[in-house]
Amino acid sequence: MIEVAREFGDVIVAAPLNHQSGKASSITMAEPLRVIKKKEEPGLTVYAVNGTPTDCAKLGLGVLVGDRKVDLVLSGVNHGFNHGNSVLYSGTLGVVMESAMAGLPSVAFSYGDYAFDADFTQCLPIMRHVIGKVLANGLPKYVCLSVNIPKVDDGIKGMKMAVSAPGRWTNTWEHRVDPRGGDYYWMLGDYEEENPNDERTDFYLLRHGFATVTPIHIDQTDHDSMQAMQQMLGI
């Protein structure tokens, strides 16, 4: 991410000090946040924050950038997809939703490789294209982008707009026993798509070798059902 972002301008990084997967838009309220400057050189400053991804966004935009104008907020690259309903749990998406609330164009990138030493080479042209277009054209108010990039041996086929595949998580928990005989549970889970053959969804397109772009709006009001709910509740 830093390598590509520096091609477009100065970069300030605020990243979690520890692994923070599944933190969604959570924030730290009961303990102090601390910032460690990890690197500073012309055009790049890197900070580690002992908080959640959204803490990093809030602290970065509110404190660490100072009086500098922010043109774009980027999040990721996440190890593994943030597709389907994963956007509700993702700390990677929490960053861009927080930044969209601040009125800033924001893009999250996720890559379909969970390996610690994943090779992100396939992500670079996708990232360059999306970052360049968003910087040139902006995004609608309160809209951020979730970009998912597949790991494919024969090359990514291209990019397509996608809807988040509706569905639910099943087989979420695995029961295990520790060496002392105590029970514990480990989160796993399979995603059960409502319609696996829906060619509009991110799941379908990623399976077929396309990178996907999904616009996410921070307004979660279901405007289409408001009138029906008003009539049902008699209000």
Would you mind describing this structure in some detail?
This protein has 235 residues and is α/β, with parallel strands linked by helices. The protein has one domain: Survival protein SurE-like phosphatase/nucleotidase (Stationary-phase Survival Protein Sure Homolog, Chain: A, 3-Layer(aba) Sandwich), CATH 3.40.1210. The protein contains 6 helices and 12 strands. Strands 4-5-6-12-7 form a 5-stranded mixed sheet, with helices on both faces. It is globular, with a radius of gyration of 19 Å. It starts with a helix and ends with a helix. The mean pLDDT is 94.
What is the fold's blueprint, element by element?
Layout: H1 2-5, E1 11-16, E2 35-41, E3 44-49, H2 53-64, E4 73-79, H3 91-101, E5 106-111, H4 123-137, E6 143-149, E7 158-161, E8 167-170, E9 173-177, E10 183-187, E11 190-193, H5 202-207, E12 210-217, H6 226-233
Parallel strand pairs: 1-3, 4-5, 5-6, 7-12
Antiparallel strand pairs: 2-3, 6-12, 8-11, 9-10
Helix pairs in contact: 2-3
Keywords:
235 residues, alpha/beta, Stationary-phase Survival Protein Sure Homolog, Chain: A, three-stranded mixed β-sheet
